[in-house]
Predict the 3D structure of the following.
Amino acid sequence: MALDFPNSPTLGQLFTSGALTWRWDGSKWVAATLATGLYYPNKLVNPFMEIDQANEGAAVTTSANYVVDGVVINVNLGTISAQRSTDAPPGYPNSAIITQTGTAAVVAGSLNGFLRRIEWDELIDTGWGTSSAQTVALAFWAKASIAGTYCGSLNNAAATRSYVFNVVITAANTWQLFSYTIPGDTSGVWAVAPNTTALNLRLTLVVGSTFQTATTNAWVAGNFVASTAISNTMATTLNATFQLGPCGLWVAPAPQPLLRLTI
């Protein structure tokens, strides 16, 4: 039986027929099963840090290398070692760990941390840069050898729009789950070409003043990846560690369960 979908739908509009719910993603109607959470697919590749095709668990020490599939390390201060680890939150198999193997004083252009690049194909349903911009939700597990304030950010590929939030580690060497609900950006230029990076999602451990902002939890113009509250103690502490565990990014009103599904 043909479904009588609404004409001229708006981005994110829902349509229910019987037991099924559908959602308009900007170009087509997609099936949505609200009760199981499958309505909100995780946008992140390798969210549980299990796949490491290039390194197979071996350490990398150079910036711009993949520590695991989908997760890049950015380091321009001191020296580091990064690799997949079997130390993970309960119920999960892996994390990605950065170890500070050589220390250095923080300068204006310092930037050490994890980076995930997300292509436009995965973000077409956000409508960012338009009046129909959709909310996204972010969740991840993290653990650090030094308690303090670290930061995260979302930035467009042109580095002209930034959303910065604090990541406060309250207890050293303890896994913590962080979650954030982030309003869609109605301004700025967001890439709209297939196979093109549209969003840079960062977890920053050390950041100099060049990339800091006093504004958190709001979209701002410019290229910022941390707040002025960042502790910046990792780069000056030999053998300090930071671990990124399971993570998720959803076009959703709230963070979703970080479920490992077996197909």
Observations:
- The radius of gyration is 19 Å.
- The longest strand covers residues 197-207.
- The first helix runs from residue 120 to 123.
- Residues 49 and 95 are 6 Å apart (CA to CA).
